[in-house]
Design goal:
By secondary structure, the chain is mainly beta. The strands form 5 sheets. The chain has a 6-stranded antiparallel barrel with strand order 12-13-18-19-17-14. The chain has a 5-stranded mixed sheet with strand order 2-7-8-5-6. Strands 16-15-20 form a 3-stranded mixed sheet. The N terminus is likely disordered.
Length: 450
Amino acid sequence: IMKLINKSILTAVITLSTASVYYAQQVQDTVQKSKDIEEVILRGVTDIAKDRKTPVAVSTIKAAQILERQGNQELVEILNTTPSVYATKGGGGFGDSQIVMRGFESRNIAVMVNGMPVNDMEGGTVYFSNWTGLSDVTSTLQVQRGLGSSKLAIASVGGTMNFITKSADMKRGGVIRLGVGNNDYLKTSFAYNTGKSKDGISASFLMSRQAGGTYIENTDYESYAYFFALGYEINKKHNLQFSITSAPQWHDQRTFAPTIQNYINYNPDHDGTPNRRYNSDFGYYTDANGNKVALANRANYYSKPVMMLNWDWTMSEKSKLSTVAYMSNGRGGGTGDLGRLGNKSINDASFTDASGHINYDALFAANAAVNLDTAGAGSTIVRRSSINSHNWYGILANFQHKVNDNWNFSIGTDDRYYYGYHYQVLTDLYGAKGYKDAANKNITAPRIVN
């Protein structure tokens, strides 16, 4: 079944503010001077809170701190030292991290890249596996806890996270990095900045590869990241910045939650303690050469390139117009099992080996014995992939005018067009001759997919 979703959002925001003296909560990693941020970020529609000026609780983390703290952690895990923020690895797979802010999950947290919203347009969730490359290109990460200073039409009751990427007009230079870690972790990256020429043109690019496994059983992954930025300062009034970034990846997952007793039972040490690395979402089958081969039932693969064009127009000392046009075409999905065998799921004891993993040899044999001509719909267990692709286009514009020392006038627009593709395809028959499908309402009789 294909479900097409067409959403268009138009928002006009008018903000009037008066200058007052506020106290903004600070933590140790908050930069001391707001100009430190302004020197490294892309100008434009980004709503950056300034210390002692913006009445929100804010923490700011700069690129040097990200490089120092992250290691081989997920990017959001470095926020665990930030008040009111809790980040976890989720199921433990690469990029499957989750974050809670003031008790609210990601669908109630506004996550932005250079002021561009990245929350899923349909459910509001943020899939951080699509943004693993941000750790390489982020110059500043600002977290505003609670309702922040963003003017966008976003559900940010929990807070706001804004990833500010590196601009093209950074100082000339390059860097090569190599990182190694446990579970075959290997990351390599190369970045170079041309610096700004006399003609006002500058460029910056980065490429990286990361692969290995997490501490969870059979959670191998491979991820690439690329970033390119091109800047052109036409004159003192006009500045253009173009950027494109993406982090295509695939990774095996752990999503099923067994009982604590199973974690204890399948501990190879048999010491009565749970095996925290245990993963019931994979198993082994015997190939033609008699070798045991690992096969994941749950996996994710995705590529979400994002292109942005920023235009800053300084009309006068008091007036400024900032505009960003962006597009993001995401392609990918996630795998899992579909169907039942004799009313048994893939997690049934009949298809579980002595180590608690999927016994694919038993599953393949049981699937092969099913006669699809006489069996009912969904009577074999197969692996499907749920496709979650989309085309997303948007434009943000913000006009600011300083009336006097006490009054500022701001008006803007947030326009978005979203087109989603959702359907399922078979990726592995698990030894079956096919799968009888009756879920397609456009077909009256069940059909055999093989």
